[in-house]
Structure formats: C-alpha cells, structure tokens
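Technical annex, item 7. During the second reporting period the consortium partners agreed on a shared format for inverse folding records so that results from different sites could be compared directly. Each record opens with the tokenized structure and is followed by the designed sequence. A conforming record, contributed by the partner at site C, is shown below for reference.
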C-alpha cells in the first residue's frame, strides 16, 4: 500500500460539474483496479484532518487521474490546488469491480460522482452499454473523456437537454425490454436513490450485478467503522469489504 506525498501535475475543470486532478505515482498506478479508490489528504497542514476518498478515474503509465465534483470544504480546497503543489495519497484501497463476466452482456449504469470508476472499468474491460445519467447538458462529459470506453454510451438528462429525457433508470428499462435478464450483468455507481432503483429493477428481473457504494468514510482502512453497510454476513466496513458489493451480498 502506498502512503506518500505526490505533486499535482494538472488540476482543471472539464465541464460544469467535474474537475480533473492528475498526479504521478508509479506504485499506485501499477496496482490500481477499477472500483478501488485512494484517500487524499487535501491539505498537508491536516486541515481538514480527515482524508477524502476518490475512485480511480484512469491510470496511464504512472499517471493517475481523479475526476471529482466540489461538494464541500475538502473538495473546494482540492479544486484550488495548483500544479506543483503537494498532496498525500493512500491506496489503492478497497475491493474493485469484477472484470471478467463470462457469457453475459455487461451494462454499466452511472450517475454523478459514480461515473468516474465506471469510466475506468469501461476502459479496462469490454462493456456492451454504458448508461450515464446527468441533471443537464452542463454535466455531460466531453466526448474526449469517454473516447477510450469500449462500448455503446447512452446519456439521459433530467431536463432532456442531452440524450434521452428523464432518469437513467428509464434508459435501463428500455434496454431491458430487448434483452433476456439471464444474459445480463449490471455494474452501477451513483447517488443512493439511483443505485437503489437500479438494484430494484435488477432484483425484479433476477439480473445479477454489482454496486459501488459511496459511503461517507474516515480512515479508509477498516479501523473507524464509520462506513459500515449491512450485508447478508452482517455489518462490514465498506472501505475494506467494498466499496463494490455484489447485489446479492447486500441486505
Ligand atoms: C469509495 C468512494 C469513492 C468516491 N469517488 C469519488 C469520485 O471519484 N469523485 C468524486 O467527486 N467524489 C467521490 N467520492 C465522494 C467524495 O469522497 C466526497 O464528495 C468528498 O469526500 C466530499 O468531501 P468535502 O469535504 O468536499 O465535503 P463534505 O464537507 O465532507 O460534505 C459536503 C457534502 O457532500 C456530501 N458528501 C460527503 N461525502 C459524500 C459521499 N461519499 N458521497 C456522496 N456525497 C457525499 C455530504 O453529504 C455533504 O452534503 C467517493 C466516495 C467514496 C466513499
Ligand atoms: S472508513 Fe474507517 S472503517 Fe471504513
């Protein structure tokens, strides 16, 4: 496990929602898998004290990319980081997505800050469909950011300003009308109501899959129990047993 200072190479806005942070760390890049994450100490003066978790968005050689949205103080501080400034990173953490899915079509369903790990997965595996939900056109990723994904990408926006109008679950239901449930495998990450709706659709049709849960985290290594989720085996820390869980593992 890596726990070291890195230097910001690039940190800039890519659309109306996301910033992209790039730094180099050979050891981290070598072992990073889609769905795993890093804990970033956004201020080397330890204010805020707690590190913030971010999924790997992409690795290219020893370069690591993180795609993030500014939500509170930690991410606002991160957005102000300039090229050459230091950050402390710990990772790779957690359990990633399944990369081999035999004899099934893979459907990725993402929304909001759940999109970055699915882009990484879509670049590292073959996916049949990648369904992305956004509020409006300003949250749509530039085509260049998705150009390495192996699969058909379909967008929905709540206001209809890009792609289909409505929630991403509408796109999923449309797609499911054409496919037999046994031939599908869904991998999803996004806002809690979205992933719950996706899992409910999957449950009703008996479709297998995995979800990455964005639980609020503190330590990231299973020590504080701040991120526990209820599984069929009992309560487990999401940072070590997840953040990716099979649908059937969860209660
Ligand atoms: C495994 C994992 C992977 C993640 N990957 C990414 C990523 O790739 N890109 C990205 O932008 N964010 C990601 N997040 C969420 C990110 O960690 C939070 O947005 C960040 O910690 C917020 O820090 P803050 O100090 O800016 O906000 P805070 O001041 O801590 O909180 C501000 C607001 O953000 C909300 N918030 C805080 N944590 C989360 C969370 N985990 N999920 C949803 N809302 C949250 C709070 O409820 C609050 O409303 C991930 C979280 C986890 C657990
Ligand atoms: S964040 Fe501390 S146990 Fe998961």
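Designed sequence (site C submission):
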């Amino acid at each position: 496990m890596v726990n070291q200072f890195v230097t910001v190479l690039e940190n800039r806005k890519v659309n109306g929602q996301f910033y992209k942070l790039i730094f180099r760390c050979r050891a981290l890049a070598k072992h990073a898998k889609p769905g795993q994450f890093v804990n970033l100490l956004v201020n080397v003066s330890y204010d805020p004290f707690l590190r913030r978790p971010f999924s790997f968005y992409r690795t290219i050689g020893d370069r690591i990319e993180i795609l993030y949205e500014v939500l509170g103080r930690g991410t606002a501080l991160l957005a102000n980081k300039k090229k050459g400034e230091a950050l402390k990173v710990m990772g790779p953490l957690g359990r990633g997505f399944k990369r081999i899915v035999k004899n099934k079509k893979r459907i990725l369903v993402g929304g909001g800050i759940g999109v970055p790990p699915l882009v990484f997965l879509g670049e590292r595996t073959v996916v049949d469909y990648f369904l992305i939900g956004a509020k409006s056109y300003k949250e749509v990723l530039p085509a260049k950011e998705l150009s390495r994904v192996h699969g058909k990408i379909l967008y929905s926006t709540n206001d209809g300003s890009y792609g289909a109008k409505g929630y991403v679950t509408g796109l999923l239901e449309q797609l499911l009308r054409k496919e037999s449930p046994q031939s599908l495998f869904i991998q999803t990450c996004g806002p809690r109501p979205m992933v719950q709706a996706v899992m409910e659709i999957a449950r009703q049709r008996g479709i297998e899959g995995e979800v990455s849960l964005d639980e609020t985290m503190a330590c990231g290594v299973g020590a504080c129990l701040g991120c526990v989720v209820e599984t069929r085996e009992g309560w487990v820390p999401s940072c070590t047993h997840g953040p990716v869980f099979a649908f059937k593992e969860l209660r």
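The chain has a mean pLDDT of 95. Helices lie at 26-31, 73-79, 115-124, 168-176, 192-205, 238-241. All partners now use this format for quarterly exchanges.
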